[in-house]
Amino acid sequence: MTSTQPAPAASLPCSILLLAGGRGARMGGQDKGLVTWYGQPLIAHVQAVVRPFTDDLIISCNRNAERYRAYADRLVEDPQKDFPGPLAGVLAGLAAARHRWLLVLACDAPQIDAALIQALLQARAPQEQPLMVQQAGQWQPMFSLIPRRLLGELRQAWDNGERSLLRALAAHGLQPLPCAADDPRLSNFNTPELLSEAGPKPLA
Prior knowledge:
With 204 residues, the chain is an alpha/beta fold. Helices cover 26% and strands 22% of the residues. The longest helix is centred in the middle third of the chain and has 11 residues.
């Protein structure tokens, strides 16, 4: 007899989007994902962690596509050419995603680990509500899990002038995944100072 029990949430297929489409203003205009950390571009560190979790790895980039191509199954870019922000990249990623869920991560958070990815996937609700890391009460939009079914509504919000990913998701029952204030996995190295001050690379 065939089981009618739903599959465990962590085993459901998931597309993954790495956001690397910003202008890198705080990096002096450098393409953040390609800045070197411990001998490799930041994007390479993030990609190595998330690669085992998906057969649909997407990178949102607005320049240097030839360099990013090695780290993704597909590339997407913003329809506007003025670096309109992460919500634009998320919309492009949702439109391209092959699976019902899209995990969104920043390219400049190289200390993320498999345990955090697993926790996000396990926290998926049957009602398919969006999920976001909440660090000591503060939402962290660059660590989000979004159901693809919201694409149309998020596009409508964009057309109505919304540019905040957090506000756009908050309108759809956004759920928190709590993390500690000092959780190093959430560190964003988005300035040269933060990159140079980063501690030792954690063991895999």
